């Protein structure tokens, strides 16, 4: 299925390994050509820039190769994938870890055919660059956030009257903003946020005291969204005010063709209505306040369990973690706002091209590439429309396929099977434990948070999650997700909310169905089916 006109499939080299874990939640499902070509260059460049910023890559390795198997980020059969040799290089060159440990943290275990080459030759460079990045990039994320927010609020209204050239200019500018915010987010995540989460996890495990979610601080962007929706359910905010603040969120918000709340507020209106019927005892405002109040006592208890000489350094670590880790959601919100401006601009471009007869419909614009929009299309409308038809058909073909969690070379896709109802009552799904705790409850399988209600006490089972899911996650008793790692969206939110969480089950949404009684062990990473629901 390799064709020059199809940007959604690039064969891999036989010696390279690839995975959809974790990166798959950024761009879930099958990307559109426009969505992929925005993420493609920027995602690969971000990986190279952050590797250089922390000292792992030299200048030659930072240079970006053309699209193909030498990229760190590419796509197979329409699904985004990451070359695991990159993660191995980061682990093998960083002090205190290895490539095998780095990959196991993402995949659960390293592929047996992976080769590792640990080295200390980059240690002097890392010793200089990593602390600088860890100190400066979180500040940059903080500074960028209000700038990007003001820009997002200002650019969207301009597009209503923009001509074709103006819409293309705004689209081009938005892709540059997307690159800027993605890179800042990525460097902050790798240099500061992830090491801090790992350090907290090690402290809690060593002392047996504390909770990583509470120690990670509060006030993140996603909790702010949940709190605003809750306030709206109590009459404190209007729907329009919620959309004005959070309208760049929505189902599949990482895909540029999706319709976010700014364009269709009905999903968030339904959540507000659902929250209005929820008892005040479930208030996320109260939960967030309780976590803030628990933090100082938990920090003190943990410090008291350590030898006196270690306490000053750990105290600095704890305070820094509580300030810095919540920035994970802040940086993500910024690049989603940049993507949303690109989305709005692309829709305006599509309107102009459809009115000119170049495209058959407005939304055909999402089957063009970035270069085709910015650089220009064929003047023959039949050529353009035929290209769109072929790409639509190919994308539909890809939607029938699934890939393994990792592979070598080019994967062998399989046709997505139907839901499996033949599972024994004592079946156990294995995944990665990402939020401690054990809970039993009925399953609620959700593919679209906009159309499915989750009742308090139910176990949310999803293919993946993004910030738009947070509004239903907080009423769930536990989270079970098909793809992801301990640093994926579901895992981070689960720790913030204090929920058991198992990610990377791969088949949870197929093997389980609504009403099944399950036992989720977030520490062991298992989901045990205890009783099948009656149909």
Fold and architecture overview:
This protein has 19 helices and 14 strands. The model has no long low-confidence stretch (mean pLDDT 91). It is an alpha+beta fold. A hairpin with a 2-residue loop joins strand 2 and strand 3. The protein is globular. The protein starts with 16 loop residues before the first strand and ends with a strand. The strands form three sheets. It has an eight-stranded mixed beta sheet with strand order 7-14-13-9-10-11-12-8, with helices on one face. Strands 2-3-1-5 form a four-stranded antiparallel beta sheet. The protein has a two-stranded antiparallel sheet with strand order 4-6. Among the domains are: 1-120 and 394-412, no CATH class; 205-315, no CATH class; 428-531, Phosphohistidine domain (Glucose Oxidase, domain 1, 3-Layer(bba) Sandwich). This is PEP-utilising enzyme mobile domain-containing protein. It holds the Pfam family PEP-utilizers. Residues 455-525 form the PEP-utilising enzyme mobile domain.
Characteristics of this structure?
535 residues; alpha+beta; Glucose Oxidase, domain 1; 19 helices; 50% helix; globular
| Overall helicity | 40-55%
Strand order of the largest sheet: 7-14-13-9-10-11-12-8
By DSSP, the count of extended strands is: 14
Determine the mean pLDDT.
91
For the biggest sheet, the summary is: 8 strands, mixed
Alpha carbon gyration radius: 23 Å
Rounded to the nearest angstrom, the distance between the terminal CA atoms is: 40 Å
Shape: globular
Strand content: 5-15%
Category by helix and strand content: alpha+beta
- Per DSSP, the total helix count is 19
State the low-pLDDT regions, or none: none
Protein name: PEP-utilising enzyme mobile domain-containing protein
GO molecular function: transferase activity, transferring phosphorus-containing groups
Organism: Mycobacterium florentinum
Domain PEP-utilising enzyme mobile: 455-525
